């Protein structure tokens, strides 16, 4: 719809209804900006998506050689 047609329709609205029309316009504008923000966020997430790489944590941690052995302090509880 051309802007001129919308402007003509707005001139036909009684002054008593301006608040209502304004609220509707605010709603439409906020809905549109939310959808645009959501689209931008989706695009940013897809661009920032990181893929796993095997061996990236190599050397970051270690496990003791005697990990599976029972500590001496628990020997009396073991059958």
How do you describe this structure in short?
The chain is mostly helical and 79 residues long.
Q: Roughly what is the average pLDDT, rounded to an integer? A: 82
The first-to-last residue Cα distance is: 84 Å
The helix tally amounts to 2
Low-confidence spans: none
Query: Which percent range fits the helix content?
Result: 40-55%
Tally the beta strands: 0
Largest sheet: none
Shape assignment? elongated
Gyration radius (Cα, Å) is: 33 Å
**Structural class by sheet pairing and helices:** mainly alpha
What is the element layout, followed by pairings?
Elements: H1 3-12, H2 18-48
What are the main properties of this structure?
79 residues, single chain, mainly alpha
Explain this structure to me?
With 79 residues, this protein is an all-alpha fold. The chain is built from 2 helices and no strands. The N and C termini lie far apart (84 Å). The relative contact order is 0.05. The model has no long low-confidence stretch (mean pLDDT 82).
